[in-house]
Amino acid sequence: MRDGRKAAEPGLRGFVFGASVPILKLHAPLPIPGCTPTQAAPMRTPLLLLVPLLAAAPARAQQTPAADSARVYELHEVEVLPRAQNAPELAAALQQGYPPHLRDAGVGGEVYVEFVVGVDGVPREVRVVSASDSGFAAPTVQAISGLRFSPAQVQGHAVAVRVTQPIHWRIAGAPVAVRDSVVIPDSIRIHSVDSVEVRPLPQNFREFTEALREHYPGALRSTGTRAQVLARFAVDPRGVPQYAQVLESSDARFNAPTLDAVRRLRFQPARVGGQPVWVWMEVPVEWADPGDSAPVMGDAEEGYEISAVTDLPRVRNTQAFQQALIREFPPALAQAGIGGIVHVRFRVEPDGTVSNPRIVRASERGFDEATLRVVRTLTFTPARLNGRPVRVWVELPIHWQVTDTPGPSNP
Q: With 0-12 CB in 10 A as exposed, 13-18 as middle and 19+ as buried, what is 140?
């Protein structure tokens, strides 16, 4: 295919990891049923496979500041993240507040909204950062304003924290909110992924893909049924998923198969101080009928999709890339205190250089040209297919923020 894309297939459409820099001052979207954290525009590349690209070097350790009740923290600064206490009410508000003219026209959309969760768990300073359709802006603000959270904490004290959350509006097949049902022993401390020094790396994506094919509900085969399920689980110090649960689902018939497939995943464990630790992960899983025609995986001339290669590319020059992000930060946006997230797709050549970068989507268009410039500075170890270096297509989110060093996120 000319643009290197492939048809949809069962897989992970957005493996969300916290990063050493936030999305518009956010490490990772909060797990709120009713708004899928990573399914914005259709994401063709399984981002699970991109984790090793920017994980070749350990993420910098987080320095926890002393608690200050007078300031608003960023998510990467807090020890305990805020968690929605009334998520089903948000899902209901999104359905009830769906703009009639957009519903009648069959239009869905995405809104990025920023707000501060106060020490009382109440959102304030709610504002829309970007919206695919302005008609979704006001009902999104109204829905978010009705959320209530457990407050973020620093050193055991409740603090205010700034959050940016993508809200997705759908007409048919709206996600089904699923309540937490697992009990974690008090003896186990499970880290958030943004707090560990070395993030978990998936080791058996191909086996996981086969598990998705194997566990596709038999009664639905050859019906073309698709579904999206957001699963959450803890990766133990051996790299094995535990305490798996469904946070949201577009079709409850896929909930149990998702958990069965997720349990097949194996990781290199997360580490803190050189020691393997427990860490939370969230995985949006996209299901497609195994009976559908086989996806196009690319070719040697135009480039393979990353799921087709046997050895993934890895970043060689992370430090130089970080410096380029600092150097290229648009001055006008920096002065205005504006950050953003830009998804960029590019091809890694057999010699490890970057070619054909293009913007997939952006929360702030002012970062587009700077993102293209800094992506061109990246160099990789080459992807390989059966031992042979090949061209491969990669899609990554690049995060820009002004309160600290801007940088890329492990997706």
A: buried
Report the 3 state secondary structure along 205-265.
HHHHHHHHHHHCCHHHCCCCCCEEEEEEEEECCCCCEEEEEEEEECCHHHHHHHHHHHCCC
**How far is residue 168's CA from residue 286's CA, in Å, rounded to a whole number?**
16
The one-letter amino acid code at 246 reads: V
Mind listing the pLDDT tens digit for each residue in 268-319? 899 999 999 999 888 888 787 776 544 445 577 788 887 777 788 888 888 8
Residue, of 105 and 15, whose pLDDT is higher? 105
**Cβ–Cβ under 8 Å, residues 31 and 38:** no
Token pair 């916290």 is found at: 18
> Stretch 380-389: mean pLDDT, rounded?
88
> Are 11 and 292 a contacting pair, CB within 8 Å?
no
Cα–Cα distance measured from residue 87 to residue 72, given in angstroms and rounded to the nearest whole number:
23
pLDDT band, very low/low/confident/very high, at 1 (cuts 50, 70, 90)? very low
Task: Please give the Cα distance from 171 to 316 (Å, whole number).
Answer: 43
